[in-house]
Amino acid sequence: MARKEKKPVHRVQMTEGKRNIIHQLLEEYDIETAEDIQDALKDLLGGTIKEMMEAEMDDHLGYGKSERSDSDDYRNGYKSKRVNSSYGSMDIDVPQDRKSTFEPQVVKKRQKDISDIDQKIISMYAKGMTTRQISETMEDIYGFEASEGFISD
Questions:
Q1: Which H or E run includes 96?
Q2: Reported pTM
Q3: Which residue has the higher pLDDT, 135 or 46?
Q4: Half-sphere exposure of residue 105, counting CA atoms within 13 Å on the CB side?
Q5: pLDDT tens for residues 64-85?
Q6: How many CB atoms lie within 10 A of CB 78?
């Protein structure tokens, strides 16, 4: 009988940047338990998805949220959507446009499970990637460009 091949164990490599992020998270979320960590990650995931969708809407309309435009299509509020992630269910606000032509790519229409997305986003945070690397990764995965300035804000 052949032995099962063991999966390699992820070895955590701490950098100064990662330590700073962890200290900021501990302060921001008052983390004391493993459940608090899950809640913080869920909150970060929801916020990241919202910002990514805002960037998609900017790209779709051709102008930023607070900019003026001569376009005949405008932002038209948000529609709440419940999705399931590996951190549990959450409600996200999906931006809408007046003409209803916006097709989000981060969380597609009728998509309810985002477990694969949340793992990618959290791993980008955990790897301590530079803003340029995160921007390139987001473009590869989701097909839209997010500026380095957008990511660092």
A1: strand 88-97
A2: 0.69
A3: 46
A4: 16
A5: 888 888 888 999 999 999 999 8
A6: 13
Residue 121, pLDDT > 80, answer no
Q: How far apart, in whole angstroms, are the C-alpha atoms of residue 69 and residue 74?
A: 9
- Higher-pLDDT residue of 146 and 3 is 3
> Which DSSP string do the residues of 37-83 spell out, in sequence order?
HHHHHHHHHHHHHHHHHHHHHHHHHTS-TT-----S--EEEEEEEEE
Residues making up the chain, counted from first to last: 153
Distance CA 102, CA 60 (A): 7
CA separation for the pair 50, 61 (Å, rounded): 16
The sign one gets for the Cα dihedral 94, 29, 21, 32 is negative
* Cβ pair 55, 150 in contact under 8 A: yes
Burial bucket for residue 45 (CB in 10 Å: 0-12, 13-18, 19+): buried
CA contacts within 13 A on the Cβ side of 87:
20
Number of other residues whose CB lies within 10 A of the CB of residue 4:
6
Provide the pLDDT for residue 91.
94
